[in-house]
Amino acid sequence: xxxxxIGVQLHxxxxxxxxxxxxxxxxxxxxxxxxxxxDHFYPLYGDPDGPHFEGWSLLAAMACETTTPHIxxxxxxxxxxxxxxxxxxxxxIDHLSGGRVxxxxxxxxxxxxxxxxxxxxGTPKSRLDDFETNLARITARLxxxxxxxxxxxxxxxxxxxxxxxxLTAKYADAWNWFGSHDEWGRCSRALDAACTKExxxxxxxxxxxxxxxxxxxxxxxxxxxxxATHLILGLGAPFDFAPIEKLSAEVRA
Length: 253
Prior knowledge:
Distance between the termini: 8 Å
Order of helices and strands: EHEHEEHEHHEHEHEHHEH
Shape: globular
Structural class: alpha/beta
Number of strands: 9
Radius of gyration: 17 Å
Strand content: 15-25%
Helix content: 40-55%
Number of helices: 10
Strand order of the largest sheet: 3-2-1-9-8-7-6-5-4
Low-confidence stretches: none
């Protein structure tokens, strides 16, 4: 169990910047392996028009105010930023962090974010088409940037459907999904098959799972049995770290 990583996703809604800064400093002090935010423009629960902050701006601040955990956006919406710019943003923040950034990305899904910020929403297929095109652009741009990222800067893809898993097998270094441990396990095995078709060793892709509640997290052993190596709990304000401390004690016992 000592190889299992533990992380937290801080929901950047219904809170202040000071609350978030205190939370990621607490996560750093606890020795967590990773800290994440999400990529939305409005709250996903509670008052839909309540306070909310942008993820990549927060990540730059987090890079300068933490010391050890890897950091990332779980996950960036492919549609919201030029892919070449996104690659450069991630590389720059990687330098600010001393080489601790994940470049997390997915095809996008939240219609309100699109319509309020005047991005074309399209269809699931068109968003995946754009995602595939942009993943190629991101990897090409990363190879051209000077200086290069300080760290490995793994690409993490959030995907659960066959085409998304194929793109994960082709482009990613890490994968994230959610759901019951049986559902997560089925997706992980489908990713193994996709890796085989792409000529990749499935073991090259880190397997992460995000828990949307403490109750869901209590079944963490089932995910580990299915191959998860990185357990991440989503937390909203007031950012109570007691469940993470309990999980850490159980995993590392």
